[in-house]
Amino acid sequence: MTRVDPERIRNFCIVAHIDHGKSTIADRLLELTGMVSGRDRQDQFLDNMDLERERGITIKAQTARMRFTAADGEIYILNLIDTPGHVDFSYEVSRALSACEGALLVVDAAQGIEAQTLANAYLALESNLEIIPVVNKIDLPSADPDRVAQEIEDVVGLDASDVIPVSAKSGQGVAELLQVIVDRISPPVGEPEAPTRALVFDSWFDSYVGVVMLVRIVDGQLQRRDRIRLMISGGEHEINQLNVIDPVPRRVERLGVGEVGMVVAGIKTLSDVQIGDTITVQSRPASEALPGFQEVKPMVFAGLYPVEAEDYEDLKAALEKLKLNDSSFGYEPETSAALGFGYRCGFLGFLHGEIIQERLEREYGLNLITTAPTVRYRVVPKCGEPFEIESPAALPDSTEIERIEEPIISATVHVPSEYLGAVIRLCQDRRGVQKDLVVHGDRVQVRYELPLNEVVTDFHDRLKSATRGYGSFDYDLEGFRPSSLVKLDVLVNGDSVDALSLIVHRDNAQSRGAELARKLKEFIPRQQFPVAIQAAIGARIIARTTVRALRKNVLAKCYGGDITRKRKLLEKQKAGKKRMKMVGSVEIPQEAFLAALKLGDE
Amino acid sequence: MPDPQPDSDTVGVYLHVPFCRRVCPYCDFAVVAARCLEASEEERYLTALLAELERRAPIFAGRRLVSLYFGGGTPSLLQAESLARLREAVGALFPPAPGGVEITLEVNPSTLERERLPAFRSEAGVNRLSLGVQSFDDSLLKALGRAHRAEESHRTWAAARRAGFENLSLDLIFAALHQTPAMLAQDLDEISALAPEHVSTYELTLEPQTPFGRAAERGRIRRYPADRAADLLDTIQSRLTADGFEQYELTNFARPGFESVHNSRYWTRSPVLALGTGAHSSDPPSEARPYGARPANPRLLAAYLARVEAGEPVAEAVDVPDAAQARAEAVFLALRRRVGLSAEAFAAEFGAAPRHYFASAIELLASRGLLIESPEGDMRLTQRGRLLADTVFEYFA
Ligand SMILES: Nc1nc2c(ncn2[C@@H]2O[C@H](COP(=O)(O)OP(=O)(O)OP(=O)(O)O)[C@@H](O)[C@H]2O)c(=O)[nH]1
Ligand code: SF4
Ligand SMILES: [Mg+2]
Prior knowledge:
The complex is a heterodimer of chains A (602) and B (397). Chain A has 602 residues and is of the alpha+beta class.
């Protein structure tokens, strides 16, 4: 059996701003190295989730291994990790970086540097990776590779002469890129003879083999049949499969220093595996685990409820499995009077939340209701210690509160100067305060302090449409700031619909309340009695509307002697009602919740 | 009126005649267009009906006939002689009940049928006519795609009276297309003047599989606003009541003594032998099927004929209600009638009074003023309950 000499391994990832062509470059690399043949070819080969293909974005980092014969005539093993570009998934990027010695920093030759270019470049620099700047899409008529190379030098601080121009579309420059990868990125360093340490940097659940761990061997080696120990969780298992991803899984007998591969060890208990854990071999264990990953703190929260109450257990199982694949979201049980049993989930951003919901629905066949996304607020009570809340329901009565503080972010927007006016208007509209403004040629970088809750839902979309797609933004959490926030409740016939409560800025309460009441009215069917819909801040009603009582519900129709049909219609009608949620004595259909909860992102 | 308990010794027979001169764009009955009904086609269908009758009758053996109903479609397209043959065959199997037999024929207002009316009475023994008048507003009749106009309704009506019919019913449509309250008031005036014995009201429903249904899907036909339909229903109720009719069932009004014997059998869950395309029978209870059974015939003429002629079982599906379903039916059918549900009769069949099964529903509905429960546990709908009947029924389904 051949050992792979670490000297002949190169581990690198591809990072960039969203849509700058990472996955397409990966396609060309796989083709050039003969890993994907014409028959299997499809665009963004590594984006294998349906959701990724439909949305045209990468959500999960993906790994592939290639063999490349370099100029020196030697065969090199190249492990590539394609990463997502959207800010919500930057956690994926940081994990990928930990498995690599180098990174391709891809910049679109027409768009130039954008917010996520910088954010990802800094992440790579912090992890001490060798960065190869790549300017992509040089085939575009609007491409200006020289200007972009200069921008890379000015803004990121990488030498413009090191920039590799390519077109992932035509393939131009990609062969040279392979050689540059071999030349510039250093081989993995690790102790082949030391006790084994392998970093688990991704994992997922497979219904046939159980938990699959994606690892990078740092020291030592893993062999089939090895008894392994997960150093943090403490679980012990036997390896029954090792695979490299070629880019489809291929069984191997061992993985050595610097190699990346999949480990299957018959693990069925999901909680036994955490991303960031270190695998060692039981017979000769390492004494210290690898540093793992910094825990990420969710920023956006929402309740997820099964539409059918019976699906609660399935939702629980699905969340466990998904968590294995995406350690950046959190969940805990939550109950709502209106929606029943569900989970409060925390996400890194709004898109992340949307993606989690869609994955749960598609991959696990669930039908879910999501409550309005909210951020974490800090509550300073009149007596007692300040505390943080992640749900409007947790907010105490206003009489007990000294003040509420909201999270503030420092947002950096990159935009061509002609759209600056639009960006400023948008930020002001969202209660933003301008911090500084830097001009790079005809591009501007503005920094704003913004309340996080003003950006969680639709800020990104609004920015894109206000700047014809040219604006991009990135943000960091700054801290909390007191603000004039109130809890907005929705009442139907006097009963509060907890799932619709919101924490909003006082200035927006009136319009939000009226909007919510109007939407609900549209979807609550007329009942045997009038239904008053009110929006209230505490005891003060700020908006009100009524669904008039149903006057007639009898179909004067001749069914001939078809009593069966009539009975079945009634049974169906009744089943439909069962799916409604009761608030007091008012029946509210799912669509009413969905419509009301959608308001925020319209 | 028949006893509200499912009875053990009578039978009603329904004969479906699927032919219509043309098919109305809102119709979802089992019908086929037959511009003029060929004698051979009529004969073939008749033969099938007679064969089916022969085959199905044993289940109803020993019962006395209380009603015979020629429905459709347009049964008046058949020759009087054909109806007579059918009636004779039914009569030969089931002797008439002591109170006599109600023999109803559905008639469309047209010249052809007008001429046959005396023969329908003398030869086929028809003693009750149900006239498909729908409305006296020609613009509405036209919009509904009906072949006749008000003029023909008047003539047919007069001819029926002349022929000696003393029990006339007419169909009144409401909440249809461009119908206004004034148009409906006009119709009610006409009805006052004609003084029928019985009125059946129908709301125009836009069924998905019909041309009107499809037009409504595409937004070409407006669905009648529910509140305005409720207004029309109010008007109908008050006008007909003032004219001396009693709303003895949700959609039916009659002068005392002229309630439809045949239709009442459905609301009392009494056995009905229904023959022909798309017919739904109510077979009497048996040991194996304590709540009876409801075979449903194929709706398509070709399928029906093929089955009968091949000697195959005719029914396409048989619904055999279980106890819970039967209870639901007993309640919602009885509540359709003004007299309501008898707790005693219910208990006799199901072993306990309605309250035993439906206590919380009864209390809720009574507290909301939709239903009245007597101290004995009998139930009937209130005026509001009648307008919200489908809401009420759902609680028992
Ligand atoms: N003209 C041109 N288009 C390109 C080139 N490379 C990529 N594209 C297009 O740019 C779009 C985005 O490409 P992707 O490879 O999905 O970008 P990505 O960086 O992986 O995007 P995320 O993973 O969502 O961040 C696609 O429509 C590609 O076809 C190129 O060299 N030239
Ligand atoms: S006349 Fe009656 S049965 Fe015939 S098509 Fe018209 S609505 Fe249908
Ligand atoms: Mg991608």
